[in-house]
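TL;DR need structure tokens for one chain.
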Amino acid sequence: MLLQGSFTVLVTPFYNKKVDYEALKNLVDWQISQGTHGLVVCGTTGEASSLNLAEHIDTIEFVVATTGKRIPVIAGTGSNCTEEAIALTQEAERVGADAVLVVTPYYVRPPQEGMFLHFKAIAESTSLPIILYNVPTRTEVNLEPKTVARLAKIENIVGIKECSGSIGQINDIIRSCDEDFSLYSGNDAENLPILKLGGKGMLSVTANIAPRDCALLFESFSNADYDMAHKIEVSLKELNRCLFLETNPIMPKYALALMEKIKEEYRLPLSLASEENKIILAKAMKEFGLI
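>> reply
TL;DR here they are.
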């Protein structure tokens, strides 16, 4: 399966300390109506670390059922415990996810060989396509290009979400892996530059609130309408910045609450955005025409 395009890394709405499945259904249907190319559920933006095991699996299953194969669903199944990552991945396969997104083990800071063996073990436990997820600012470990190239030789490891912020590293990965291994932008500010290097799409936070524009950016680039792609990229610049004024997903959830799509509710240790940052984001949203 070749996954290309703009994939929204979906927030998980809460209401009264529980997953708000009604709001989640409405989000999924709205995303599809806006032309997004796929959804990522229970990723970092989905507050996966705050979901218990049953909620994690139930949320994946609910989004798969709601989507109804209209667009692909990628399930976040990463953990710093290899056995837990395997169990989550197998559950994602059981409930019908199209692929899984597996973050590098966090906190324990494993060596490159440890990460290689971690991902290899997960790949051997499932038939699902696996997308690696490298986000050093959150995990304190960097999946190096040589390790990615080794992992890319495993049949069902099909791509990587790259959030290292290093264009040099991204270029090294693209050059060292076969054409059928896909690299995706994980930083919205880098979406167009990564597409220009050969990226196959983006796993986007901004697409939570501007899914049509993010999809059009990818489609414009794919259709060689580079002027339009650049125009869209420029128009999204301030939104991209404001959505990361605080720890993700604090600002995207506030934005969706302003759009009356979810309640502004988080799970500890996340908390409400500062009033100052709320004002800045609301201004950017008004200028973009979202509210």
